From TrEMBL:
The keyword Hydrolase applies. PANTHER family: ACYL-HOMOSERINE LACTONE ACYLASE PVDQ, PEPTIDASE S45 PENICILLIN AMIDASE. Belongs to the peptidase S45 family. GO terms for molecular function: hydrolase activity, acting on carbon-nitrogen (but not peptide) bonds, in linear amides. This is Penicillin amidase. It holds the Pfam family Penicil_amidase. Residues 1-26 form the signal peptide. GO terms for biological process: antibiotic biosynthetic process. Transmembrane segments: none annotated. Keywords: Hydrolase, Signal, Zymogen.
Length: 808
């Protein structure tokens, strides 16, 4: 097998001719240099097929990283460079201290906060310390080679090509990078749901002074469980990350082999986009899928034997420790009565058109001092106490090794083996299927080792409210016996080992839509895990309920193929509509005089809406009439009516998929929500029965492209969260939603049967021919047939081959 693949590799290299070319964004180098590459340094062969998808062929991991870095730069150099400015702590220098930082690598609101944090990480040499650890705690030699090669490939592209993307053409902040920069990006991605969420409070925390410090002022009264749950949802119910995925066992499929549908929901713009490729080292690695920008390994994908995807978990990836302070010094805390001084991290940031800014951050054995969970849940630093954040992913560089292990796996058991060895996934579940017919779900993620028993012994008063309501633990940091401890199978102290992870093997279906592990399969509920992983027996979101209804029916029907996965992706069914639209239409028709009073006190004629909602087909297809009206109504209804009053039949843990149900149209907020939605559409000049495609679209190359799908709160599988602007005609842009799709199965051949789609296309450069081509396919609900095997790659009518290399 190895010799055969090497012959294919040599054949592919021989295909390179003078007619070969890079994509338009990278097609400016002299032809002669490409025909006679240097014989020393790193190099790779890149075969581009339809839609600019690169198939990267290399002899080892360093060369593979080189080809990947080169090809990512060709498509996304501006988004990548912007991220490296963030990681260097130089946003204020180039873009101004008060400008918004964006959400690609942290939740910092301003460039100054972002810079103070990331420059602090760099100056503390956090990344170097993790790189120095032996595998599996630190990265393996293969991953180090990938990172080193990626940096070299990115730099070679900058040196040899001209930037055509107007977002950064000629910008002084586009600079070469190092392996350290690539590793720092991986660390930032891992901790984006931990320390990354708290950048503003980490960089703003200050010790109390004067009377506040000497008085030993106590903290504010304990917030309610409802306020805590809301704060947790705002922090970790991130609208910028989500997903659906389902794996079907061979017992449900037409040929006894597994099937996987992956549907991650991610930003359509910026540095958190996915990027497609195939990576091949003959005889060692052959995998296709999507990578997060700036990372050298495939994040979600498939090979000849197994396919996997990820969904964001309900696990809480960080916890807090309440520090008991020395009465004489609020920067000294006590552990078992012994004083420990906080570590000062003093950071200076250069500022555009201004003087440098210097700030001090305060760090403890547990992590940085923070002063709030949210505006409603303060964690004040007083003369008596302070709070420190513990994020085990702040030193986790194991994501890439875990993903590389998936890429080389030959079964779902191999996927689990990689998770068990590397323990590197920070905030995602894994769903997988293989050609032998196995299915897998596991919430194998890096979580602080917060057990219910530990919380019972060591929780503070505030923690006793927080933990049951949200899974957020606040432990007594003054007691050594409240340390997180170590599981014997954990690679590092303070996290759960593989034996504690909620896992479901070989169920007819394994599905997750960002709900808890409990309802991965309605007939085989998972229980017995710690609260920090998520809840058991609590109300499901509409997207989870709708997904389980759909995939359970598919599994019961049996005989499934990849085509069934494709149909599920674009069914665009609205579970909220199925549950409520009929009730809304009937209650609407019963309103006296066909009028309802809006939230502004004005009477609105809603009689036309009654018939529109009754006739609506309960989908978010582009041609659906009534979809837009229901969408705008439902958003307002959820704001106007408390969740515990929305339904007449309450939730029952004995029937979690079908309850709650029966819309409470008697709720006081119902008529106003309907009136406001009708008034909103009329004010925008939009007919109540207008087809969705006229008002939910993106603009590419000056043309409107209708966008199918709808909001996750409606329960739609194909999540699309566009921006509403009635004055501009409706929904004007899609900042977030369905991103890298893959529907994967196997037949009797050596090649997987795979259909993929990158909804926002491969490049964000408007001058690239691949900035909108797959978006047009998404608009028409069409897919790309994956070219995985050599014969399929080499037979592509769009094949372009290039040998990329370092120049000495």
């Amino acid at each position: 097998m190895r010799s055969r693949l090497r012959r294919l590799a040599l054949g592919a290299t021989a295909l390179f001719t003078a007619a070969s070319a890079l994509p338009a964004a990278a097609a400016t180098a002299p032809e002669r240099a490409e025909q006679h590459p240097s014989r020393d340094g790193l190099s790779a062969v890149i075969r581009y097929t339809e839609h600019g998808i690169p198939h990267i062929l290399a002899k080892d991991h360093a060369d593979l990283g080189f080809g990947t870095g080169w090809a990512q730069a060709a498509d996304e150099v501006c988004a990548l460079a912007d991220g490296f400015v963030t990681l260097r702590g130089e946003r204020s220098r180039y873009f101004g201290a008060d400008a918004p930082a964006g959400g690609d690598l942290s939740a910092a609101r301003t460039n100054l906060a972002s810079d103070l944090y990331f420059r602090g990480v760099r100056e503390s040499r956090t990344v170097e310390k993790v790189l120095a650890e032996r595998a599996p705690v630190g990265p393996s030699r293969e991953v180090r080679d990938l990172m080193r090669g990626w940096a070299a490939g990115y730099n070679a592209w900058l040196k040899q090509r001209k930037i055509t993307d107007p977002a950064c053409a000629g910008a002084s902040w586009v600079r070469p990078v190092t392996e350290l920069d690539v590793a720092a990006r991986g660390l930032a991605i891992a901790s984006i749901s931990g320390e990354g969420r708290f950048v503003d409070t980490i960089t703003a925390a200050r010790p109390p002074t004067g009377k506040v410090a000497s008085s030993g002022a106590s903290s504010a009264r304990t917030p309610s469980a409802k306020a805590v749950a809301k704060a947790a949802d705002e922090l970790w119910g991130d609208p910028g990350m989500g997903s659906n995925a389902v794996a079907f066992h061979g017992d449900t499929t037409a040929n006894g082999r597994g099937l996987l549908l992956g549907n991650p929901h991610y930003p359509w713009e910026g540095g958190r986009r996915f990027w497609q490729s195939q990576q091949t080292i003959p005889g060692e690695l052959n995998v296709s899928g999507g990578s997060l920008l700036g990372t050298p390994a495939i994040s979600i994908g498939f090979n000849a034997h197994v396919a996997w995807s990820h969904t964001v978990t309900t696990g809480i990836p960080a916890n807090f420790h309440r520090l008991t302070l020395d009465p004489a010094d609020p920067t000294t805390y006590l552990v078992d009565g012994r004083p420990e001084r906080m570590k000062k991290r003093t950071v200076t940031v250069a500022v555009k058109d201004g003087a440098p800014v210097t700030r001090t951050q305060w760090w403890t054995r547990y992590g940085p001092v923070v002063t709030s969970l949210s505006a409603q849940v303060p964690l004040p630093w007083t003369g008596e106490a302070a709070y420190a954040l513990n994020d085990p992913n702040a030193a986790n560089l194991r994501f890439a090794d875990t993903s590389l292990g998936f890429s080389k796996a030959r079964s779902t058991a191999g996927v689990l083996a990689s998770l068990d060895r590397h323990q590197g996934l920070p905030w995602v579940n894994t769903i997988a299927a293989d050609r032998a017919g196995h299915s897998l779900y596991t919430q194998s993620q890096v979580l602080p080792r917060i057990t219910d028993e530990l919380v019972g012994r060591c929780s503070t008063e505030l923690g006793r409210t927080m933990y049951p309501a949200s899974g957020i633990a606040i432990l007594d940091g003054s007691r050594g016996d409240c340390a997180l401890g170590r599981d014997p199978d954990a690679v590092v102290p303070g996290i759960f080992g593989p034996g504690r992870m909620p896992t479901l093997k070989d169920a007819p279906y394994a599905e997750n839509s960002n709900g808890t592990a409990w309802m991965t399969n309605a007939d085989r509920p998972l229980t017995g895990y710690e609260r920090v992983f998520g809840t058991v027996g609590t109300q499901l979101g509409l997207r989870t309920r709708g997904a389980i209804e759909d995939v359970a029916a598919m599994a019961d029907r049996g005989g499934l193929t990849v085509r069934d996965l494709q149909r599920q992706q674009f069914a665009n069914r609205v579970p909220a509509g199925d549950l409520a639209a009929g009730d809304v239409a009937r209650a609407c028709a019963a309103l006296p005089g066909g009028t309802a009073t809006g939230s502004d006190g004005e009477a609105v004629d809603v009689s036309e809406a009654c018939g529109v909602l009754k006739a609506w087909d309960r989908t978010m297809d582009t041609g659906s009439r009534g979809a837009l009206l229901f969408d705008r109504f439902w958003r307002r209804l959820e704001q106007a009516v408390p969740s515990d009053r929305l339904w007449k039949v309450p939730f029952s843990a004995a029937d979690p998929v079908r309850t709650p149900n029966t819309l409470n149209t008697d709720a006081p907020g119902f008529p106003a929500a309907l009136a406001d939605a009708v008034a909103e559409l009329r004010a925008a000049g939009i007919a109540l029965d207008a087809p969705l495609d006229a008002h939910q679209f993106v603009v590419r190359d000056g043309k409107r492209l209708p966008v199918p799908g709808g909001g996750g709160r409606l329960g739609v599988w194909n999540v699309i969260e566009p921006t509403w602007d009635g004055a501009a005609g409706g929904y004007t842009e899609v900042p977030f939603g369905t991103s890298h799709l893959q529907a994967v199965g196997w037949d009797g051949s050596r090649c997987p049967v795979a259909r993929t789609l990158l909804t926002y296309s491969q490049s964000s450069n408007p001058n690239s021919p691949h900035s909108a081509d797959q978006t047009r396919l998404f608009s028409g609900e069409k897919w790309v047939t994956s070219r995985f095997c050599e014969k399929d790659i080499l037979s592509s009518p769009k094949l372009k081959v290039v040998r990329v290399h370092e120049r000495r």
